[in-house]
Amino acid sequence: MPALLARVQALAAAHAADAVALRRHLHAHPELSFKEHNTAAFVAGELRKIGLDPRPCAGTGLVALIEGRPGGPVVALRADMDALPITEANEVAYKSTNPGVMHACGHDAHTASLLGAARILTELKTEFTGTVKLFFQPGEEQIPGGASLMIADGALQNPAPGSILGQHVFPKLPVGQIGLRSGRYMASADELYLTVRGQGGHGAMPELNLDPVLVAAHLIVAAQQIVSRRANPKMPSVLSFGKVMANGATNVIPNEVYIEGTFRTLDEGWRTEAHGHLRRLCEGLADSMGAVCDLEIRRGYPCLDNDPAATARVKAAAQAYLGPENVIDLDQWLAAEDFAYFSQAAPACFYRLGTRAPDGRFGASVHTPVFDIDEDALTVGTGLMAWLALNELGA
After folding, report:
1. Choosing from 36, 82, 141, 337, which is the catalytic residue?
2. What is the DSSP letter of 234?
3. Fewest C-beta atoms under 10 Å: which of 151, 168, 229, 284?
4. 228 Cβ partners below 8 Å, 6+ apart?
């Protein structure tokens, strides 16, 4: 194993420039969820260059197999390919050429890393017994989530993986480190869409109107008691409203107010219970004030669970590859990821790849216009992913 580890590290270093070039191409040509047509074509072309035969899955997704010696286990590696509706503010040579669309969550790095890992594993396929299954997934950023669609389209069949691993950038950690957590790691995420309807009119004559702005304001404040007074204080929950539209004027009360938000938790039972509380509160409060509230809850991704046995194997293998001091235990996080669907269907481990430079550069959060990575992380990402796959196969 030490000799194989050294070979993987050497191959990752040898392919470093290629990984950077792949990532920069992807970063410059981002595509939104379920519209990754050019991205999928580009990835398929790169896979064919190394002798693989990718097949479409879930529209713009791809599945490919790297087959070692006959027999043996199957491990799946996943990367997501979609970008976000954000205008990039970075002034770099590989800046997005698609106005209003940006790889602000590192999916370009995920895809480039998996392509790099595929190159390494293809070169080493005489060294292992079993199969590595590659998932290049669409639509992670948008409900219903490309992972669920790939599962429905048979991605976990013929052959069925015994485990599945996913990697995600993490600017809080420096290059050379990864973070992971066994058990429940990430939250469920549901989208909330509310319309509060009243009777608009002149702002100087409120007695003739039914002000939906006032109702909406009470509702936004009152809804927080679901988290502060209904939830078990030991159970993390988040209720946030990020969009409020009341299209009136200084002296015009509108007819309706439109609100968007999110509800997240780490407990599936409480998740369903909270939906009922929120619905009753919205409808009852609005009715008590003479208005009407329509609430749509779009059930999003479930909680993400890292299988304890798979995570223990990943942790041990990563410690061998990076050094024990560079494998960090993470806290639970109330962000959400549709990799959770894979974690429900097979033993899974979703870990975080450090992307911050040693001098502190590239520390901006994901989902911001200035997010970027230290591209040395790609050497770590490609090699480690290949090494973890080999470890899962018992090479």
Report:
1. 82
2. T
3. 229
4. none
Q: Please pick, among 140, 190, 256, 307, the residue that the annotation labels catalytic.
A: 140
Task: Please give the structure tokens belonging to residue 289.
Answer: 């004030």
CA distance linking residue 285 with residue 225, whole number of Å: 13
Rounded CA-CA distance 181/307 in Å is 9
The token pair that represents 122 in the structure block:
């293809």
- What per-residue confidence (pLDDT) applies to 2? 82
Mean pLDDT computed over 134-152: 98
Given a cut of 80, is residue 1 above it in pLDDT? no
**CATH code of domain 188-298:** 3.30.70.360
Q: How far is it, in rounded angstroms, from Cα 94 to Cα 24?
A: 5
- Residues 16-47 have pLDDT tens digits of 999 999 999 999 999 999 999 999 999 999 99
Estimate to the nearest angstrom the gap between the alpha carbon of 72 and the chain centroid.
30
Residues of the chain above pLDDT 90, percent:
99
What stretch(es) of the chain map to CATH 3.30.70.360? 188-298
DSSP E strand boundaries for 38-128? 55-57, 61-67, 69-80
pTM exceeds 0.90 for this model? yes
Residue with tokens 């420096």: 174
Let me know if 80 is a catalytic residue: no
Domain at 2-186+303-393: CATH architecture: 3-Layer(aba) Sandwich (3.40)
DSSP strand pairing (178-180 vs 327-329) = parallel
Tokens 């159970």 locate to: 235
User: What is the pLDDT averaged over residues 276-294?
Assistant: 97
Q: State the Cα angle at 378 between 33 and 60, rounded to 5°.
A: 25
Q: Respond yes or no: is residue 375 known to be catalytic.
A: no
Please report the beta strands in the chain, taking only residues with DSSP state E, as ranges in sequence order. Answer: 55-57, 61-67, 69-80, 129-137, 163-174, 178-180, 183-186, 188-197, 201-202, 237-245, 252-253, 256-265, 292-298, 304-306, 327-329, 348-356
Numbered ranges of CATH 3.40.630.10 in the chain? 2-186+303-393
Go through the chain and tell me how many residues it has.
395
Calculate what percentage of the chain has a pLDDT beyond 70: 100
Secondary structure (3-state) at 182: coil
Within its chain, how far is the Cα of 82 from the centroid? Answer: 10
Q: Using CA atoms, how far apart are residues 150 and 128, in angstroms rounded to an integer?
A: 27
